[in-house]
Structures are given as structure tokens and as C-alpha cells.
């Protein structure tokens, strides 16, 4: 499908990023994940190392949150009172919207892209999950961690991603109605998940 955008939200350790990369190989679509931070740094002039630390984290200013709620997206990056996290979200959102207008198609991981592109005509919203024990095993192998360390990292990372999504969208990160397709990679594997998304995309 021309100009389609696939957004991928993912549980930590489920292989969501790898699914996106495989899907890019199958479709020829552009794949965007961490490179969105580089693009945001170039667009805003903000330091990339600082933006890396703020990536997919909600602003932690309680007073700002109470004052602005989830409306930081509308206050711009040049406002000195806007937390860095909100500046990054704003710039990344602008970049995501620009990418969605291009003709080659795009796969975007995280960054509330499904919310940012809610009005995009050819949008496919995907959520990648996996059995918790399988995710623990994946993270233990990937980062050479103990079982306890892996469980702690998964719980904290999923909570951070949930808080980020909930804060900036006013929605719920893992709520099924937010997505068109939910895939468990412990059932399909990475390649199988990518092929399922490709098939779904062809049916749209």
C-alpha cells in the first residue's frame, strides 16, 4: 500500500524492534527507531546525548504536569519552561508527521506514533507482546543478566513506556482497542510476526 505507515508499540523483550526491522526488509519501507533521536537533535539543535537520556520518558515535573496536563505537544520547543522530555516529544512528533507524508512508506517504533498519526489515512497500529517468561529469557541472553535482573528490567521498562504513552496521549498504552493488530512473538517468532503484518497490510 502506497504511503502506508506501520506503528509498532512493544513490550520490552518481545522483539518489537526486530519485527519492525524484518518488516522493513519484506516491504522496502523505511524503518525508524533510535534514529528519530538523531533527527530530532538535528531539527531542534538540542544535544543528542541529552535527548538519548530523555527518550520515551515522560516529563517528571509535577508542577508542569499539573499546569499543562497532556498538552505539552502544543507549546513548542522554544518555550524555556517546557521540560526537555516534552521538547523531544514535540520535535519527534513533527518529524513523524513529516515522514508519514512521504511516498515510500514507514515503520515507526514507539514514540506514541499511533497517537501522533491518528488522522493518517493509511495507518496500521501494531502491538507486539510475548509471554513474560519468554521475555525474561530473551533479556537474560541479550544483556547477560540474571533472571532476577532481567525481570526487574522488564517491569521497569514496561512501566516507563506505559507512563510515557499515558502521559502524552491521555490513553492507555496496552489497551487493545488502541491497536489494529496484536501479535505474540512467542507464538509466531520474529519472522512470522513480520509476515503477519505484511499480510494484514496487503489486505487493507
Unreliable sequence segments = 61-80
- For the record, the CATH class is Alpha Beta
Fraction in helix: 40-55%
| Structural Rg | 17 Å
CATH superfamily: P-loop containing nucleotide triphosphate hydrolases
Number of helices: 9
Largest sheet: 5 strands, parallel
Question: What's the CATH topology label?
Answer: Rossmann fold
- In terms of structural class, how would the helical and strand content be classed? alpha/beta
Question: At CATH's second level, what is the architecture?
Answer: 3-Layer(aba) Sandwich
Q: What number is the mean pLDDT?
A: 86
Helices and strands, in order, run as EHEHHHHEHEHHEH
What percentage of amino acids are in beta strands? 5-15%
- Tally of extended strands? 5
**Main β-sheet, spatial strand arrangement:** 2-3-1-4-5
Total domains, how many?
1
How far the N terminus sits from the C terminus, by CA atoms, comes to: 8 Å
Indicate the overall shape: globular
Amino acid at each position: 500500500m502506497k504511503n502506508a505507515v506501520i506503528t509498532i508499540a512493544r513490550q520490552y523483550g518481545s522483539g518489537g524492534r526486530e519485527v519492525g526491522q524484518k518488516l522493513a526488509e519484506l516491504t522496502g519501507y523505511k524503518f525508524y527507531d533510535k534514529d528519530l533521536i538523531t533527527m530530532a537533535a538535528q531539527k531542534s539543535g538540542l544535544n543528542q546525548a541529552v535527548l538519548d537520556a530523555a527518550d520515551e520518558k515522560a516529563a517528571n515535573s509535577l508542577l508542569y504536569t499539573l499546569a499543562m496536563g497532556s498538552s505539552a505537544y502544543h507549546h513548542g520547543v522554544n518555550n524555556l519552561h517546557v521540560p526537555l522530555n516534552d521538547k523531544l516529544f514535540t520535535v519527534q512528533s513533527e518529524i513523524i508527521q513529516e515522514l508519514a507524508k512521504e511516498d515510500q512508506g514507514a515503520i515507526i517504533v514507539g514514540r506514541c506514533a499511533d497517537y501522533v498519526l491518528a488522522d493518517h489515512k493509511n495507518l496500521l497500529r501494531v502491538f507486539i507482546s510475548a509471554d513474560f517468561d519468554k521475555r525474561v529469557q530473551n533479556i537474560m541472553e541479550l544483556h547477560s543478566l540474571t533472571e532476577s535482573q532481567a525481570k526487574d528490567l522488564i517491569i521497569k521498562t514496561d512501566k516507563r513506556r506505559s507512563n510515557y504513552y499515558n502521559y502524552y496521549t491521555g490513553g492507555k498504552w496496552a489497551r487493545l482497542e488502541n491497536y489494529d493488530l496484536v501479535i505474540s512473538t512467542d507464538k509466531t517468532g520474529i519472522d512470522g510476526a513480520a509476515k503477519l503484518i505484511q499480510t494484514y497490510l496487503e489486505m487493507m
